[in-house]
Design a protein that fits this description.
This protein is an all-alpha fold. It has one domain. It has helices at about 5-110, 115-130; strands spanning about 135, 140. A two-stranded antiparallel ribbon has the order 1-2. Helix 1 (about 5-110) packs across helix 2 (about 115-130). The longest helix is centred in the middle third of the chain and has 104 residues, at about 5-110. About 0% of the residues are buried.
């Protein structure tokens, strides 16, 4: 017959403890796999976020460059317009000075003294006949 002594019960107890330990290890291994999978997923999401941030930064940088180029172009156009206005003012001033000098010279050259308004009309007609783009040899 079967001898049921303390060793038998100790072996059964040891066996049950071993089964419990193995089950806990299996559960721990399963938890470890789950954590590793979640960690890998979190890394992928983090990389996706970083990639998206880099794309947004590149897009913002490109938009900023385009805005700066537009501003520079507007500044160049404004400067060219200002230069043109200054050029026209200088040409007008030059015409006025030529008229004044022409009147002065004409007054000395012409023996017959005409009236001031007639002198200005003669010189004004002369100036109007000049090429709009050139006054003498000077480009406007």
């Amino acid at each position: 017959m079967i001898d049921l002594n303390a060793t038998f019960f100790a072996q059964i107890l040891n066996f049950l403890i071993l089964v419990a330990i193995l089950r806990a290890l299996a559960e721990a291994e399963e938890l470890k796999k789950n954590y590793q999978a979640q960690l890998a997923e979190a890394r992928e999401k983090a990389q996706a976020i970083v990639d998206k941030a880099e794309k947004v930064a590149a897009s913002n940088r490109e938009a900023s460059i385009q805005d700066t180029k537009r501003e520079i172009e507007q500044m160049k156009k404004a400067a060219q317009a200002e230069i043109q206005r200054d050029h026209e003012r200088a040409a007008d001033q030059l015409k006025k000075e030529i008229v004044a000098l022409s009147l002065l010279a004409a007054g000395k050259v012409v023996e017959k003294n005409l009236g001031a308004s007639e002198n200005e009309a003669l010189v004004g007609d002369f100036i109007d006949k000049l090429d709009k783009d050139k006054i003498g040899d000077l480009s406007c």
